[in-house]
Amino acid sequence: MKNAQASQTQEAPKASEEIPGLTDMISKKNIAVYPNPTDGIFTVEISDFTKGTHADCRLTDLTGKTISHHKVSHGSRNFNLSHHASGIYLLHVTVDGKSSVWKIVKK
């Protein structure tokens, strides 16, 4: 009986484990990150921002070293990991003081 109950329990993904291609909500602002995993170039797409609002996007390795840092106000921005090693990177997105962290996998 314990095994049957355990197999029915599933946890929702955490912010650092965003499902590739899905949209995250930060303070009612829409942000999408895709493709993930990536061969090197991935896109951060932003929609529904009010004038003057921007997302602060900082890409780091797992040691916390900043790889790139951009402010995105509307539309999309490409990030390039082509010249970096395969592995896991973190995309920190902050809008109006609220943050979300996306796990980016480079193949």
Describe this structure in words.
This protein has 107 residues and is mainly beta. The chain has one domain: Immunoglobulin-like (Sandwich), CATH 2.60.40.3080. 7% of the residues lie in helices and 50% in strands. The protein contains one helix and eight strands, in the order H-E-E-E-E-E-E-E-E. It has one helix spanning 2-8, and strands spanning 23-26, 29-34, 41-47, 55-60, 66-72, 75-80, 87-95, 98-106. A four-stranded antiparallel sheet has the order 1-2-3-6, with no helix packed on it. Strand 2 (29-34) and strand 3 (41-47) form a beta hairpin. It is globular. Residues 1-23 have low confidence and may be disordered.
Name the CATH architecture. Sandwich
Helix content: under 10%
Low-confidence stretches: 1-23
What composes the largest sheet?
A: 4 strands, antiparallel
Mean pLDDT value: 77
Number of individual domains: 1
Could you tell me the radius of gyration in angstroms?
Answer: 16 Å
Q: Could you tell me the number of beta strands?
A: 8
Order of helices and strands: HEEEEEEEE
Q: Please, how many helices?
A: 1
Strand content: over 45%
State the name of the first-level CATH class.
Mainly Beta
Overall geometric form:
globular
Q: Would you kindly provide a brief summary of this structure?
A:
This protein is mainly beta. The chain has 1 helix and 8 strands.
Write the layout of secondary structure elements.
Elements: H1 2-8, E1 23-26, E2 29-34, E3 41-47, E4 55-60, E5 66-72, E6 75-80, E7 87-95, E8 98-106
Antiparallel strand pairs: 1-2, 2-3, 3-6, 4-5, 4-7, 7-8
